[in-house]
Amino acid sequence: MSPKKKSGQISEPLEQYRKPLTFETVWQLFCETDRKFQETDRQFKETDRRFKETDRQFKETDMQFKETDRKLRELHGLFTSQWGKMIESLVEGDLIRLLNERGISVMQTSERITGNYRGTSYEFDILAENGSEVVIVEVKTTLKPADVKEFIYKLSQARTWMSKLKDQTVYGAIAYLRADAGSKKMAENQGLFVIRAAGNSASIVNAPEFRPKVF
């Protein structure tokens, strides 16, 4: 009597599915495994190549951003410089009249006075003078408190830097197109004439009773 079949059992003997491992079978498995390793290595190399290409593109983009930033800074510097020269010309055109109205009888002006004193370079935007009095003018597109402090220092050194000022009465004035909060008042408190450029003219904004400081 043949044994009873259990539910789900395969009646065919398993031996017929078992194949002995031959050299050819092992060799085929080895070759297949090696092929897969090589394919995996190729994929790794491709991934690495893409990473390097992405890194190169990032570096190139960063370089382009830096170049663009450099050009923007150059344009900003050029714009500021040209704008500053325009304000200087505007202020200088009205300067003699404005100072004469304030009791300082200057007769001539000069721009961009530069020099070097014992290794220290200096520059003054405008000088208005009459031989015994001189008003040194600093021109700023946007006036800031730090600009006032720096100009006060320059005024304190002016007689040392420029020998022709030694026997003259030296006053200071600071001109601007825009001013940060508090900078105009700070300049006036330091004894400076404060000149505002607006439209096609300039005006002194100090109070009528203002008396400039002699530096």
- CA gyration radius, whole angstroms: 42 Å
**Residue share in β-strands:** 15-25%
Q: Under the CATH scheme, which architecture would be assigned?
A: 3-Layer(aba) Sandwich
Structural class: alpha/beta
- Give the tally of β-strands: 6
Number of domain modules: 1
Spatial order of the strands in the main sheet?
1-2-3-4-5-6
What is the percent of helical residues?
A: 40-55%
CATH class: Alpha Beta
Describe this structure in words.
There is one protein chain. This protein is of the alpha/beta class and 215 residues long. It has a single domain, classed as Trna Endonuclease, Chain: A, domain 1 (3-Layer(aba) Sandwich). The protein is 48% helix and 24% strand. The protein contains three helices and six strands, in the order H-E-E-E-H-E-H-E-E. Strand 3 (133-143), helix 2 and strand 4 (169-179) form a beta-alpha-beta unit. The longest helix has 79 residues, at 23-101. The chain is rod-shaped, with a radius of gyration of 42 Å. The model has no long low-confidence stretch (mean pLDDT 83).
